[in-house]
Design goal:
It is built from five helices and three strands; from the N terminus they run ααβααββα. By secondary structure, the chain is α+β, with helices and mostly antiparallel strands. Helix 2 packs across helix 4 and helix 3 packs across helix 4. The longest helix has 29 residues.
């Protein structure tokens, strides 16, 4: 149940184009970026960016830390492993189903 909840949170986080853009920026940066830098990159106020960051953080897709008055964000690519595992089940299911269909059609 916990894994399903985690996958749901990740999909919710990825459902918004701004959050996908923020995550992409953090992945490409390969280092922590300040909340102010992220807000400027996606043309949001700091408050608007904070709302998106909280959803990404709740989904486990980013980690935040504070230094003085500034918050820094870094991508957590391990979260994508859960999505890959979730998709792998369906990939196996459809691959097997299509093979059975191919076999059936070849024998008909």
């Amino acid at each position: 149940m916990a894994k399903r909840d985690s996958v749901n949170k990740i999909f919710k986080a990825l459902a918004d184009p701004t959050r996908r853009q923020i995550f992409h920026l953090l992945v490409m940066a390969t280092t922590a970026m300040s909340l102010t830098q992220l807000a400027n990159q996606v043309d949001l106020t700091r408050q608007g960016a904070t709302k998106h960051i909280k959803i990404l953080e709740t989904a486990g897709m980013i980690r935040t830390s504070g230094q003085g008055r500034e918050r820094f964000c870094m991508a957590n690519l391990e979260a994508l492993t859960e999505i890959r595992d979730w998709l792998a089940y369906y990939d196996k299911f459809w691959t097997a189903s299509l093979k059975r269909l191919d076999t059936f059609l070849a024998n008909s």
